[in-house]
Amino acid sequence: MNPETLQSFILASGSPRRSFLLKSAGFNFQVAPSDADEFFPDNMPAEEVPAYLATVKAHASRKNHSGNVLVLTADTVVISNGKILNKPASEDEAVSMLMQLSGTAHKVITSVAISTSGNTEIISCASNVFFRKITPEQIRNYVRDFRPLDKAGAYGAQECLPPGYNPCSKEENEFLVKMGLTGLLKDSQPDNQILKPMIAIERIEGSFFNVMGLPLHLITDRLNSLLRS
After folding, report:
1. Which terminal residue of the chain has fewer beta carbons within 10 Å of its beta carbon, N or C?
2. In 10 A of CB 118, how many CB atoms?
3. Which CATH number is associated with domain 3-228?
4. Environment class of residue 115 by beta-carbon count within 10 Å: exposed (0-12), middle (13-18) or buried (19+)?
5. Residue 226 phi/psi, 5° resolution?
6. Mode of pairing for the β-strands spanning 9-11 and 70-80
């Protein structure tokens, strides 16, 4: 990949998980979070919200970057019982969200907007996440230690996996092998000697990295194609 071309890649997101995943895949980029207001129509179906917000962020970000620049924006939503769980505003709200998710299944959708000077395309991915029953004490400890206030649904998937469980889909595992990134799953998880994860996830149907906030296996080839052109 041409380093001069890669300098024109802007990640318009402040998410450390998205930065980590893109860096792991070998991308070189600048971080310049979008200043877009993350509002959406009240009557919009929950499943359509992430694509809508990713597009809003893309349009707002392009105003700040002229020339032949590739801008990537993204939005992730957690949908429980048909309603979106946003980023919690407080630790108490985070605890309440996780109590709601305990012992149930929910959907996580991430939409990525890949924007160039002449076009914006959306790539979306949906996963179903199944939570086991978690106790109020486990939840409070997790919120205290990991402070998931910057995460939709008040949790990070990488912090909630059972030991030894590979949550990646078949397509993701094949992608990781192809890219020489078989250690990415382990690298994405916290150091257990520093913080103890909350073993909340029973299983994931679909993409794990989508739940982290970026379906890397779906966007890497497209990004490389655009950045090499």
Report:
1. C
2. 6
3. 3.90.950.10
4. buried
5. -70, -40
6. parallel
As given in the structure block, the two tokens for residue 125 are: 């991915």
Whole-angstrom distance, CA of residue 61 vs CA of residue 81 = 32
Express each pLDDT in 30-60 by its tens digit. 999 998 988 999 999 999 999 999 999 999 9
Bridge partners of residue 123, in order along the sequence: 112
40 by DSSP, 3-state: which? coil
pLDDT tens by residue, 205-215: 999 999 999 99
Catalytic residue among 75, 145, 191, 221: 75
- How buried is 140 (Cβ within 10 angstroms: 0-12 exposed, 13-18 middle, 19+ buried)? middle
Backbone angles phi, psi at 75, to 5 degrees: -145, 135
Cα–Cα distance, 220 to 40 (Å, whole number): 28
Instruction: Output the pTM of the full model.
Output: 0.93
Residues 106 and 83: their CA atoms lie apart, in Å, by: 10
Do the Cβ atoms of 208 and 167 come closer than 8 Å? yes
To the query of whether residue 145 is one of the catalytic residues in this protein, the response is no
Whose CA is closest to 15, among 188, 168, 228, 180? 188
